[in-house]
User: Fold this.
Amino acid sequence: MPDPVISMSIKPVAKSSQDNFAKGIARFTREDPTFQVHFDPESRESIASGMGELHLDVYAQVSFSCSVVCSLLLQCSIAHCLQSATFCG
Assistant:
């Protein structure tokens, strides 16, 4: 199976649609192995990955039984200090 080439954040418009959203995600990931969804705990977003932007747009626009919003991923950057450094100036 090919690896996904694009990822986007996806969430239901209304909090009350969370159950329909979860059922849709479960059904689509079961039926289409190229469509993958995972939850990113850092950004607290559901991340949908697929074979292209059109692939994700089709699922977002016509496949869920609720309205969803897709957006570009937030860029989270965590810097780790590996060792201290002294700068001379």
